[in-house]
Amino acid sequence: MGAVHGVVLDTDERWQIVDRERASLADLLEGLSPEEWETPTRCGDWRVRDVAAHLTIAARFTYRAVVRDFVRSRGNFDRMIHDSAVREAALPVAEIVANLRSTIGSRRLAPTTSPREPLLDILVHGQDIALALGRRREMPTTAARDAADRAWTMRVPPRPWPLPKARLVATDIQWTRGEGEEVRCPIAGLLLLLTGRPEAAREWCELVGVEGPV
After folding, report:
1. Fewer beta carbons under 10 A from the terminal one: N or C of the chain?
2. What residues have CB less than 8 Å from 208, skipping those under 6 apart?
3. What HEC string does the chain produce?
4. Alpha-carbon gap, residue 51 to 30, rounded angstroms
5. CA-CA distance, 148 to 194, in Å (whole number)?
6. pLDDT recorded at residue 212
7. CATH code for the part of the protein at 11-208
8. CB contact at 8 A, 119 and 143
């Protein structure tokens, strides 16, 4: 079954949301304790500092640097992303925050990506960080819907997680996708499901006081 569409974000609106999300996440990071920076997340083996560092890369690295890292990873896209984040995460935390703030206003994209990927990245990884710390981080519904659409259709870059085999129905905005047993949840929780984070989806729902994926 196809989506039930509402207002579609244009490119300028996407970038404006990305800028606001980058700024608010930098504010959150700036207040963390040394121990919180080392907190494990549900994003593979990444700590908070690794996720934060990853979010600074696409808008700062040149095309030449990306090619260099791709060669260094022997053509493995996932390894390139992982290793570049871990390397940047070795920087002092104040520098990581400064690097994130420096991306506000940037419109630079990683190769093969569109303006929809930075929005997807900042929304989902912002939750990776916040949930690892037990923090509540709101997600704009129209932005979450746009990111959910992108997660559903993503082919390039390759999607590293399978799509849920279910009919997904957002309870707070007009949006449906898929076929099968119905799963109802606010769109932010569905976005976390779509990006391979079922536990994070449940945690997010508990923190914001809404019904989880059912």
Report:
1. C
2. 136, 138, 186, 188
3. CCCCCCCCCCHHHHHHHHHHHHHHHHHHHHCCCHHHHCCECCCCCCEHHHHHHHCCCCCCCCHHHHHHHHHHCCCCHHHHHHHHHHHHHCCCHHHHHHHHHHCCCCCCCCCCCCCHHHHHHHHHHHHHHHHHCCCCCCCCHHHHHHHHHHHHHCCCCCCCCCCCCCEEEECCCCCEECCCCEEEECHHHHHHHHCCCHHHHHHHHHHHCCCCCC
4. 14
5. 7
6. 84
7. 1.20.120
8. yes
Q: Are 49 and 89 in contact (CB under 8 A)?
A: yes
Q: State the residue for tokens 């929809």.
A: 116
Q: Which of 147, 85, 91, 145 is nearest to 120 (CA)?
A: 147
